[in-house]
Structures are given as C-alpha cells and as structure tokens.
Amino acid sequence: MNVPDTNSNTEIKTTDQLKTVISDAIHSQNITDIHTHLFSPPFDELLLWGIDELLTYHYLIAEVFRKSDVSYQQFWRMTKAQQAELIWQTLFIENSPISEACRGVVTTLDELGLDVSSRNLQDYRDYFADTTVEAFIDTVFESANVSKVVMTNDPFDPAEAPVWESGDTGDTRFEAALRMDVLINSYEDTAYEHLRGLGYEVDPTLSSEKGYKEVRRFLETWIQRMNPKYMAVSLPPDFQYPDDSVLGRIFDNCILPISREFNVPFALMIGVKRAVNPQLKMAGDGTGKADLTSLETLLRENPDNKFLVTLLSRENQHELCVIGRKFKNLMIFGCWWFMNNPSVIEEITRERIELLGLSVIPQHSDARILDQLIYKWKHSRQIIADVLVEKYQSILDVGWTLTTSEIERDVNNLFGGNFERFLNGN
Length: 426
Ligand code: FIX
Ligand code: ZN
Fold this sequence. Notes:
Layout: H1 15-28, E1 31-33, H2 51-55, H3 58-67, H4 72-77, H5 80-93, H6 100-111, H7 121-129, H8 133-144, E2 146-150, H9 161-166, E3 174-175, E4 178-179, H10 181-185, H11 187-197, H12 209-226, E5 231-235, H13 246-262, E6 266-270, E7 272-273, E8 286-287, H14 293-301, E9 307-311, H15 317-326, E10 330-332, H16 342-356, H17 372-396, H18 404-424
Parallel strand pairs: 1-2, 2-3, 4-5, 5-6, 6-9, 9-10
Antiparallel strand pairs: 7-8
C-alpha cells in the first residue's frame, strides 16, 4: 500500500495531489466483489484457475470463431488444452490481443510476474503447475486487493450439493449468493421434478398456497444452509411484472416474502437472451433492451423489499439511474458482462455518479476464473479513478475543499461500504 504524501486531514490543493490521493485510495482500498462465478476450494472442480481456463473463458471462445476456420463440432471435440492452444495461436499470435477479454489475459500474466513478451504458453503452464490452488488464491486476492468474493450458488446443482451438505465451505473469503435461475426460469422443466424428488409437495403449475408454502420452505432451508448475501436471478429483456405466470407467482408468493422475512435482498440481472446461438454453448448468450416499467412496478409495489439490479443493455443504463433516484429500495450494481468494457464502464460510471452521486456499487467482476480477479479489477479501478478525478476536480475548481480522508471514505463506500449498508439497513 502506498502511503499518501498528504496528511489525511490536509486539504487537497492541486490536480496532481488529487490524482495521487484518488489513485492511492482506490489502489489501497480492499474490495468486496459482489458477483462472481468463483468457488472456494471445497467445491473442487467448480473452482477454475490457471492459463488453460483463462484462455478458454467463454468471452474468448466467442472471439476465436470469428478469426479461425475451426467448426463448432471440431472445437467442442477438442480437449481443453487443445482449445486453449487454438485460442492462444489465433487470438494472441496470429492477431494482436487487444479486445478487452484478450487484453485481460495479458494484464493477468504480467501482474503475476510472467514475461508476456516471451509469448511462451508452456512457460505460463509451468508457472501454474508449480503452485497450489490455496497459494494461488492468496496471490490473486493480494494482487487484486480483493478481500471478499460472492459466489453464485445454485441449489439445484448436484456438484455443489455435497459441499453444502457437509456444512463446510472452507475459505470464508468466499460468500454465498442463492441463485434462483432454475427455480424461476425452469420451474416446469427442471425445478418442479427436483423439488418433488426432495419431498416438497409442489404441483407442476405452481398455483396453490400449498405449493407456495413448499417453495418458501425450500428457500428457507437454503438460506439457513448457505447464509447468502442475497438471492439472485438473471432475466430476459422481456420479463414482465406483475404477471400471472410461474415467474410472477414465485416472485409474489415465495421470493419477496422470504426476502423480507430474512432480510436477504433480491438481485435482478436483467437483459440476457439465453442461447441466441446455441452452437456456442455458454458463449452463445446475447443481450436485449428491457422495458423497465416492470422494474418500476416491482420497486413501487414492494417498498419493504430490497433489490440489487444490474442490466445488460447499454440503452437501459440511463433509465436505470433515473429509477434509482425514485426508489431507495434499489441498489444499482456493476457493469455486467457486455457492459464490462472500458468505454462502457467509463460512460456508465460517469452517468451513475452524475445522477446518483456515491450511492451505487460501481462494479463487480463476474470472474469465472480465479485469475480474472486480477485484470477485471485492475482495469475497472483505473477507469473509476479517472472518473472520480474529473468529478472531484469540478468541485475543487469552484472552491469546495476536500481532504484525503473524505476521499478515502467515499472510495470505501463505493467498493464495499454501500453493499454492507444496503444489506444491513432496514
Ligand atoms: O448470469 C450470469 O451471472 C452471467 O454473468 C453469466 O451467465 C455469464 O455467462 C457471464 O459469465 C458473464 O460475465
Ligand atoms: Zn454472472
């Protein structure tokens, strides 16, 4: 941690001083990363790390098909190591790696102390072969200055179940989020049978008080088991609320009452069109602009519920900020997925701060591979710092005074304080 060259109560006088103070505050601030797809070590193979995982990230899989003649069938028949080699050769050697997902790999290798100018994939593989996952978690958390990450935990996933049943999720820096996609988006196809198999007396249409009570019982069990920071679901752009569909009934009769009763916010991630190109598997999801009237209704009709919201369409971001001004039960978070690119992060962060001040959670990483915490946070920190310099400078210019400790306070709220306060407040 760099020691700021100013006393914490000294007034900031110059632009250079402001830049140094913000940079120091942002880089020394440890982060609570509120949405990732990472797992603690007991989840074993669900915790992805290392160069081959980094290279086969689904963002890079989508990009490799644009530059290689490999067919979908050929690609999916390859081993992970072969896929990684194809992606390395195509996107890093035969083309320059300047897309955000490619650049992320380069930043990560560099931050790990590897020689990116060698372009030697075997050297990178050797580095990972020489470390243990526990040691690597420490390396990554330290490098990214992340203190906590929130996982995405699916109560319907048989791979997760044994760990939850054991009651020991290991490293406490990994916290839970109870993901409801299967329950909400696949009730009739998957969740219903699964619940019946576990002895819950639910019906296929989920339309009786008895069924609602059983789903609430299921949620209560998982809240007690996981102690989640929040419940979450990803939704398509055309999601409707209120609605007399399974979704609307689960919201009103199961999730919202449980969310209030246990003071566990509900996170909505809106705007994903799943399987736009199924040939790409996980890389095949797209985005669409949502009609946010449904979100407004949800917030207005459920004032005692807390909602965390992130949206996948750039076109929805300004409207979301305006909604944030109307509803204190909404906490806007992160630049999700296709929004997590420097130009868009900069635009959204500026827009949010202009409309909502410091009352947002500007970013989450969505890391799927442990190593990605390094680049996702390095890149985002830099952009958020630049936007803050501009905003603080504009009030300094007209005579407002600022101290280092005030800036540290604000940065602390953005990177963790706002989340804790939202979770713990009424
Ligand atoms: O639904 C989600 O949580 C998305 O973030 C993922 O499904 C997506 O695949 C992803 O990794 C985005 O960054
Ligand atoms: Zn995600």
